[in-house]
Every structure is written in C-alpha cells, then in structure tokens.
Amino acid sequence: MTVRELRLVVTAADYDEALRFYRDALGLPERAAYASPDGRVTILEAGRATLEIADPGQAEFIDQVEVGQRVAGHIRVAFEVDDSPATTAKLAGAGAKVIADPVRTPWNSLNSRLEGPAGLQLTLFTELGSEEG
C-alpha cells in the first residue's frame, strides 16, 4: 500500500474569502474546482506534502520559539515560502492576523505565525540553510 497524496480539507464558512486568501494572496495554484447543488469545493496545489506529528512537549517548544507562548491548537498548517517576512506582510494585507512576526529558529529557519481564514493557524517558514564560517 502506498499513500500518493496528503489532502488537508478545510471547511470555511466564508468560502470566497478563504479562496481569495489561499489561492490569490498566498498563491496556491488551483488544480480543480467542483460545484454541486449543495456547495462548492476548490482543490489547491501546495507543493510537497508532509505530515508532521509532534508530542505536546515539542508543540509547546515550537510555539515558544515562534510566538513566545502556547497558542496553537492540535492542528497548525505550515507553508515553506521563499521569503517569510514578505509573505507575512502580504498575507496580513490580505486579512490574516499576525500572531508573531518572523523569528530565526534554533533549526535555522525564519518562521512567522498567522491566523488565516477558517480559523487556521499558519506557520510561514523560510529555510536559511547551513551556517558556514
């Protein structure tokens, strides 16, 4: 048995706001969209998918590093972006609530924390690479 795709399904009360934010502001390309008499769904590409599982202690540590206190629920979505400060500003302009500005982490990435549409807590991260010299 092989898993071929991880798909995170989010129910958004304001579908149009969520679509504008994740597709138009964050830039996730639209793969497909479907409608039925009961509603609509759009599938957005988000690059490579991984499932990160953390125990409560590690989740607390990550929140402390990124935000300074425990703030995330049991699900947080993380997006790797080329420029986390610029993307944080862009998404704030598109309606996201900035919980914490970008901070350099002990694992050498630049991470920010936001709350997006549908109440999703987001981490934006930019890998900084290895330090030399």
Automatic annotation (TrEMBL):
<protein>
    <submittedName>
        <fullName>Glyoxalase</fullName>
    </submittedName>
</protein>
<feature type="domain" description="VOC">
    <location>
        <begin position="4"/>
        <end position="127"/>
    </location>
</feature>
<dbReference type="InterPro" id="IPR037523">
    <property type="entry name" value="VOC_core"/>
</dbReference>
<dbReference type="InterPro" id="IPR029068">
    <property type="entry name" value="Glyas_Bleomycin-R_OHBP_Dase"/>
</dbReference>
<dbReference type="Pfam" id="PF00903">
    <property type="entry name" value="Glyoxalase"/>
</dbReference>
<dbReference type="InterPro" id="IPR004360">
    <property type="entry name" value="Glyas_Fos-R_dOase_dom"/>
</dbReference>
